[in-house]
Amino acid sequence: MLLLFFLAPLLFVGLLFAWLIPLGYTFKSIVNLIVVPTEFFKIFTNKTMRRNHALEHATVNVIEEQYGPTNLSGIATDDGFLIRGSANPSLIYNAAVIGLTRIQRGEKDLALHKRCGTSIAITNLFTSIVFILFLLITGRANIWTVFLAIALGSLIGPTLGVVTQKYITTRTDLSDVEIVGYVPGFGQIKVLTRDKASRDREPVIYIE
Ligand SMILES: [Zn+2]
Q1: CA 53 – ligand 1 centroid, Å
Q2: Do 52 and 131 belong together in one domain?
């Protein structure tokens, strides 16, 4: 009975490593193979979203150049982008304007950011592909192939992230874009953008 008491957790851990983790990882990888490319395709074919994503990165980069790493995060939308975190709305707005001008003048790298969700997603996709390839070649999934796939993913991930941001999820031709205002909210600010040519949105400048 006592032996069973000690053996049960060991058995559970053994089962977890030998069976549950590889099985769960196989499932997760198959989902990634479908979900991640679909998401990338959606962003890639949305010019507005890509340009706003570039501007979102540029804004955070301009702020971080001055103040060092921040806890700011962002989301691109169809009409602009949201920046979340504790920063003064007018500081964010000014950084967005500076970011736009600098990209327009040729500083394309400003559109790339290390903490971008794109980098995490492409790393997950790459890791999943490696894992599934192992599975197809060897015919088995075990904890070591999971580790190996994750290790390779974390090695190649950062480089893949930059390439994916550059060619798929951002766009640096911002000659036709203008920032028309911002809307401060609780713990976030929305910066509004539009096509220069279009009259789809009137300028909205919020002054506190
Ligand atoms: Zn991003």
Answers
A1: 6
A2: no
104 and 195 share one domain: yes
Which structural domain, as residue segments, surrounds residue 174? 47-112+170-208
CA of residue 11 to ligand 1 center, whole Å: 42
Q: Please tell me the distance between residue 6's alpha carbon and the centre of ligand 1 in angstroms.
A: 48
- Tell me which residues of the chain have a pLDDT lower than 70: 1-2, 199-208
The reported pTM is: 0.85
Q: What is the CA(69)–ligand 1 centre distance, in A?
A: 15
The reply to whether 21 and 122 lie within a common domain is yes
In this structure, are strands 188-195 and 80-84 parallel, antiparallel, or unpaired?
Answer: antiparallel
Residues 58 and 98 in one domain: yes
Q: Where are the alpha helices (DSSP H) in the chain?
A: 2-15, 21-44, 47-67, 89-104, 117-138, 143-164
Residue-level pLDDT at 207: 43
